Amino acid sequence: MGLPVAQPGSVPKRVLTIAGSDSGGGAGIQADMRTFALLGVHGCVAVTAVTVQNSLGVSGFEEISPQTVAAQIDTVAGDIGVAAAKTGMLASAPIIEAIVEQCGRSGIGRDASVPLVVDPVCASMHGNQLLADSALDTLRHKLFPLATVVTPNLDEVRLITGIEVTDADSQRDAARALLDLGPRWALVKGGHLRASDRSPDLLYDGEHFIELSHERIDTPHDHGAGDTLAAAIASALAHESPVPEAVGFAKDWVTRCLAAAYPLGAGHGPVNPLWRLRAGPAD
Ligand SMILES: Nc1ncnc2c1ncn2[C@@H]1O[C@H](COP(=O)(O)OP(=O)(O)OP(=O)(O)O)[C@@H](O)[C@H]1O
Ligand SMILES: Cc1ncc(COP(=O)(O)O)c(N)n1
C-alpha cells in the first residue's frame, strides 16, 4: 500500500497542513507530518495554535495571529509550492477569515489548482473545545465553499448542520446538508457510531453516495484518527487521485494505523502510521 515515492534525485510532492500543534504528538500537525512522511510526500506547515495537550486532554492553547497564519501559507505556497492542502484546528473566526483570503490568493481551494481538504475540528476527542462557537458561521459559510472535500465526524456534523446521525438514513441527510454549504464532496465519518461493529464513512458529491465501511478496530487508542485520515486524503490528492480513490486509500491507511495504535500516558494513545516502516518496500 502506498503512493508513488519520489525516486532519489527527484522532488516529492508537497502538501501543506494548516492546523494546531499537539504537544503530546498524537494529533494536529504532528500527526499530519507523520502521515505525510510515511506516504512519501514533503509536509509544509502553517501553525494556527499551540495546544497544551497530553493523552488525557487539552488544558489550554494559545492562538497564532491571523496575519502570521496567512503569512506562513503565503511564504510556503509562493516559494516551495504545494500540490494539496488540508486544514485542522483553526481556533477562531479571524484565523479562518485570514486563511480563506490567503488560500484565494495562493490558488488553494476547490475551484483552484490546489485541492483543499477541510477537517472541521471543533473539539478534541476528550471534549475540549478547539474552535470558538463564534467561528461556526465563518467555517460554514466562508471555508466550506472553498473545500474540495470536508471530513466532519458525527459531533461536528451535529454542530454544523444540526443533524444527529444515528443510522444510514440520517448519515445521508447529513451528507446532503453538508453539500448544501458548498464543498465539492462531503465525507460523513462514522467512527463515532460505536454501537456498530463497522466504521462506516459516507462520501457524497450531490449525485453519488459512496460507502466506505471497514471493520471496527477495538482500541481506546484512536487519538489523531481524523487528522491522519485527512492528511492521507490530501497526500493522495497531491498525486492527482480522484476524490473517491483518495478517500478509499486514506480509509485503508487510517484503519491500518488504528490497528497498530499504541498506549501512551494514562489516557488515549495515538494511531500509528509507523507500522509502514515495518512493512518493507514490497508491501
Ligand atoms: N475504532 C475504529 N475502527 C476502525 N475505524 C475507525 C475507528 N474509529 C474511527 N475510525 C475511522 O477513522 C476515521 C476518523 O474517524 P472519526 O469519526 O473517529 O473522526 P474524528 O473524530 O475526527 O477522529 P479523532 O477525533 O480520533 O481524531 C474514519 O475513517 C473512521 O471511520
Ligand atoms: C492540535 C489538535 N488538532 C486536532 C485535534 C483533534 O484530534 P482528536 O479528536 O484525536 O483529539 C487535537 N486534539 N489537537
UniProtKB/TrEMBL annotation:
Residues of the Pyridoxamine kinase/Phosphomethylpyrimidine kinase domain: 22-272
Functional description taken from the UniProt entry: Catalyzes the phosphorylation of hydroxymethylpyrimidine phosphate (HMP-P) to HMP-PP, and of HMP to HMP-P.
Pathway assigned to this chain's UniProt record: Cofactor biosynthesis; thiamine diphosphate biosynthesis; 4-amino-2-methyl-5-diphosphomethylpyrimidine from 5-amino-1-(5-phospho-D-ribosyl)imidazole: step 3/3
A molecular function (GO) term: hydroxymethylpyrimidine kinase activity
Chemical reaction(s) catalysed: 4-amino-2-methyl-5-(phosphooxymethyl)pyrimidine + ATP = 4-amino-2-methyl-5-(diphosphooxymethyl)pyrimidine + ADP; 4-amino-5-hydroxymethyl-2-methylpyrimidine + ATP = 4-amino-2-methyl-5-(phosphooxymethyl)pyrimidine + ADP + H(+)
Superkingdom classification of source: Bacteria
Gene Ontology terms describing biological process: thiamine biosynthetic process; thiamine diphosphate biosynthetic process
Keywords: ATP-binding, Kinase, Nucleotide-binding, Thiamine biosynthesis, Transferase
Protein name per its UniProtKB record: Bifunctional hydroxymethylpyrimidine kinase/phosphomethylpyrimidine kinase
NCBIfam families found in the cross-reference section: HMP-P_kinase
A single cellular component GO annotation: cytosol
